[in-house]
Write a structure and sequence with these properties.
Largest interface: A-B, 58 and 62 residues
Oligomer: heterodimer
Helix content of chain B: 55-70%
Number of strands of chain B: 0
Shape of chain A: elongated
Distance between the termini of chain A: 57 Å
Structural class of chain A: mainly alpha
Strand content of chain A: under 5%
Order of helices and strands of chain A: HHHHHHH
């Protein structure tokens, strides 16, 4: 029955001072830091242990990746603007900014698809070399995170009924989705120079 | 209807801010976005400049990336006005992140040794020992 409400989904927990959902998403992001951290560590080991390592810019498409970086940064500001719009009481603006975030996310994946298909066309696969192995692993895992974010953001854009019935709870959900999305942007901020430029 | 009412625990970060406060934050978000765009251009531009050694290029690129990441975390993720418990979680994460990055690096000398063609015999003969 609906009287069994999940505790502290809106009000801050007395111990942490924040709602449980927000605390949980930060713990999840902490585990994500370790996941990507382990792969970055592998990248460093592979690179420093190799007799030679290709220059990223010689193997990968820097202009496309630069555009993709801009696309992801843009999606981050539209995401935070979506949350801010809710806080300012405008559901229509929220939907508009969420749609822009989703458009940017889809754009990122399209560009990534172009990059991947070009690599496959030239016979570059994860098994080709350690460089392409770690490139596909890191960018592939990041791409999966983008897809996850798209699913969550699309759900929050379409199903907004909670905003009318439990406004603060809905705002918290959007904020938590935003935290995840900014983290995905943050990971790319390190992936881009590490793989493409150095 | 007002979603920004004060809570008994001093309010969780943003909930302390009313719509007027949020409107002010929007200007900050735009400034952060522009800074991120400029820093992306700087990252790409500087990668084509040889800064004396390859290590210097790596350090500069990672410093710029760290500045960009800090901007995203501080303003878009609101860390600048976050509760203490989040900083404890992130501090502990940062500590373990350093472990996962630097402890394996202690073996770099060994991986170099094995990847050197001159030492390939050592790799082949290793299982016999």
């Amino acid at each position: 029955m609906s009287d069994v409400a999940i505790p502290y989904s809106v009000k801050p927990h007395p111990v942490t001072g924040i709602p449980n959902g927000k605390f949980a998403i930060w713990l999840f992001l902490a585990s994500e830091v370790m996941l990507f951290g382990a792969l970055f560590s592998s990248y460093i080991l592979l690179r420093t242990g190799a007799p030679s390592w290709p220059h990223g810019a010689d193997e990968l498409n820097v202009p496309l990746a630069t555009v993709n970086t801009m696309v992801l940064i843009t999606s981050s500001i539209t995401m935070v603007m979506a949350w801010a719009s809710l806080k300012m009481g405008s559901l229509s603006k929220y939907r508009l900014y969420m749609a822009a975030t989703l458009a940017c996310s889809a754009g990122f994946l399209v560009i990534k698809y172009i990059e991947y298909s070009t690599k496959f066309h030239h016979g570059h696969y994860p098994s080709t070399s350690n460089f392409f192995g770690i490139y596909f692993t890191l960018t592939g895992l990041h791409g999966i995170h983008i897809i996850g974010g798209i699913l969550v953001n699309a759900y929050l854009m379409i199903f907004t009924g909670m905003w009318k019935t439990d406004r603060e709870h809905f705002e918290n959900r959007v904020e938590n989705a935003g935290l995840y999305w900014h983290f995905v942007d943050l990971v790319w901020i390190f992936l881009f120079p590490s793989l493409y430029l150095l | 209807m007002d979603s920004t009412h004060a809570d008994p625990h001093g309010a969780a970060s943003h909930d302390a801010h009313g719509p007027e406060e949020i409107a002010k934050h929007v200007r900050v978000y735009i400034m952060v976005f522009l800074s991120l765009a400029v820093l992306t251009g700087v990252t790409v531009g500087i990668s084509y400049v040889h800064l004396g050694s390859h290590w210097m290029n790596i350090v500069v690129a990672l410093v710029i990336a760290s500045i960009k990441a800090s901007l995203v975390a501080a303003y878009f993720m609101h860390l600048i006005s976050e509760k203490k418990v989040i900083f404890w979680v992130l501090g502990l994460t940062a500590l373990f992140f350093l472990f996962v990055i630097f402890i394996p690096m202690a073996t770099i000398g060994e991986t170099r040794h094995f990847s050197d063609p001159a030492n390939s015999a050592a790799v082949v003969s290793a299982p016999h020992h």
